[in-house]
Design goal:
By secondary structure, this protein is an alpha+beta fold. It has one domain (2-158): Aminopeptidase. It has 4 helices and 7 strands, in the order βααβββαβαββ. It has helices at residues 10-26, 39-48, 101-115, 130-138; strands spanning 2-4, 51-56, 58-66, 84-92, 120-125, 142-147, 152-158. A 7-stranded mixed beta sheet has the order 1-2-3-4-5-7-6. The longest helix has 17 residues, at 10-26.
């Protein structure tokens, strides 16, 4: 089940974040570290009503779905759509990867976007995060460019007119 995150979820979300960060470190993916993303970042998402969790008895996945572009996204002028949702801080329990949890979170974001009248989703990831790069490709996201200020590759999924 996917639902809006609550403040009471923060300890489990932070525990999951540490697990994901440590797994990324073991896999030599330098995207995150033990200072980001952590409890304070997810707490802000909860206050903004932009954090959702996937749970099956316990929280196994997390996704932030924002309705505004981040400043670094303005570096690129070749987005196909400015009216978009932005996805951030996706977590999936490392031992449960490749079980469809991330896909369910992405599909939830797509459904929510369509419901709210958006026609695209933007996301960025580290160039060495091969797990996310593969998922983005499978989900139909197209590479838009490189965000130099944050050292990330930007992607977009557009179902509106191009």
């Amino acid at each position: 089940m996917i639902r809006l995150a609550k403040k009471e979820d923060l300890n489990r979300i932070d525990e999951l974040a540490v697990s994901v960060i440590n797994t990324m470190k073991e896999q030599n993916i330098p995207q995150w570290n033990l200072s980001y993303p952590r409890k304070e970042h997810y707490e802000k998402d909860i206050k903004n009503g932009t954090l959702f969790v996937y749970e099956d008895d316990i929280i196994l996945g997390v996704i932030a779905i924002a309705e505004q572009n981040d400043l670094p996204y303005e570096e690129l002028s070749n987005w196909t759509d400015e009216f978009s949702i932005v996805i951030h801080r996706i977590l999936v329990e490392p031992g449960l990867r490749r079980k469809g949890i991330a896909r369910k979170l992405f599909n939830y974001a797509i459904d929510l976007s369509i419901e709210k009248g958006f026609t695209s989703i933007k996301i960025d990831t580290h160039a060495e995060n091969y797990i996310m790069l593969n998922l983005l490709k499978k989900m139909g996201f197209e590479k838009v460019g490189y965000l130099k200020s944050i050292d990330r590759v930007a992607f977009e999924l557009n179902w509106g007119e191009k």
